[in-house]
Design goal:
The chain is α+β, with helices and mostly antiparallel strands and about 325 residues long. It is built from nine helices and 13 strands. Bound molecules: adenosine-5'-diphosphate (ADP) and magnesium ion.
């Protein structure tokens, strides 16, 4: 017998709240009322603001139809968590809207399994959602986080003289786009690492928390460094000079250095953070960075002169901010 909508929700999407979080009493931060009513009730800690973000993945646009549902679920949650990280927010709860071509139990089992694993890993509970049937698979997750009032990191606070940093290494996810259809068994070691970076981006939540009160602006890199740093520049009303040679690309990359840099600048999907720090706070950043699970690289400086430019030690070249856009 095919599953009804409510059996499906009950079996796969209720009770996805990490154990010690549980469903909380009124007054305690967390999910006060979860899946099963008309709305969920969420409680933010006193003195905090809610940070809310949503991202949709469409089959055939964001991922190949037929993609592994376990990975798909994790990627869908992680790209949202990355937005929370970029604002310096702590995960509180998420909602899930899925449009499914069919109620395929094996698919749902794997999808819910992947989601549950990451809900536990990142300590965030599923508070509700919507389940519909449609021609194409569409997954929308909305994540909510909390941030001490007034302390969220935005794109708007960079000043001339601030240093520009990126976390981790850039470009692997863009390199994976060409091989998304490849079975894990058929992929080389380098290809497997790239696929992993694409499907399982690491939301930089610990870094985001540390940057509260320290960074002047932050963004997560979803559309390529040039485009995303460009958003900081536009919102902050300034420009930047970066040294492309300082951008951390994949360690054991078997591609030429200029292609690696091109991918880092103009490829997407890395979900690392790009942020700016005033010169007076660099020592604090260095100290804080020691306890972080990710490397930080200083790649350049914010300038009063508008525009994003590359500096190779001799010449300055304008960097177009072209990343992926849907339209
Ligand atoms: P309503 O008709 O009031 O919008 P629904 O019948 O759509 O409610 O959903 C019933 C309950 O199941 C709600 O609490 C809703 O949040 C939850 N829900 C529906 N789909 C999902 C899903 N994919 N994941 C998590 N919760 C879901
Ligand atoms: Mg209702």
């Amino acid at each position: 017998m095919a599953l009804t909508e409510f059996e499906l929700i009950d079996r796969f999407f209720s009770n996805m709240v990490p154990a010690p979080l549980g469903v909380r009493g009124a007054g305690e931060a967390g999910i006060a009322l979860g899946v099963g009513d008309d709305c969920a009730l969420l409680q933010a800690p006193a003195g905090h603001q809610l940070a809310v973000t949503t991202d949709t993945l469409v089959a055939g646009v964001h991922f190949p139809a037929g993609a592994d549902p376990h990975l798909l679920a994790q990627r869908a949650l992680r790209v949202n968590l990355s937005d929370l990280a970029a604002m310096g927010a702590e995960p509180l709860a998420f909602t899930l809207a899925v449009t499914l071509p069919a109620a395929d139990e094996r698919w749902l089992e794997a999808f819910a399994g992947g989601l549950r694993e990451d809900a536990e890993r990142f300590r965030i509970g599923l508070a509700g959602g919507d389940t519909t049937r449609g021609r194409d698979l569409v997954i929308t997750i909305q994540a909510m986080g909390t941030v001490p009032a007034g302390q969220a990191l935005t794109r708007a606070g960079a000043h001339p003289g601030d240093r520009i940093f990126v976390s981790g290494r850039l470009g692997d996810a863009a390199a994976a786009l060409a091989i998304l259809g490849k079975a894990a068994g058929a992929a080389s070691g380098a290809e497997q690492r790239r696929l992993q970076r694409y499907w399982l981006p690491e939301p930089r939540l610990a870094l985001g928390s540390v940057l509260r009160g320290m960074a002047t602006a932050a963004i997560d890199i979803s559309d390529g460094l040039a485009a995303d740093l460009g958003h900081i520049l536009a919102r902050s009303g300034c420009g930047a000079l970066i040294d492309p040679q300082r951008i951390p690309t994949a360690i054991d990359d078997d591609c030429p250095a200029d292609l690696a840099i091109e991918r880092a600048l103009h490829g997407g999907d890395d979900y690392e953070l790009c942020f700016t720090v005033a010169p007076t706070r660099l020592a604090d950043l260095r100290r804080a960075a020691r306890s972080l699970p990710v490397e930080l690289a200083d790649i350049g400086e914010i300038t009063a002169r508008p525009g994003l430019r590359a500096w190779d030690g001799e010449t300055e070249t304008p960097l177009p901010g072209h990343g992926f856009t849907h339209f």
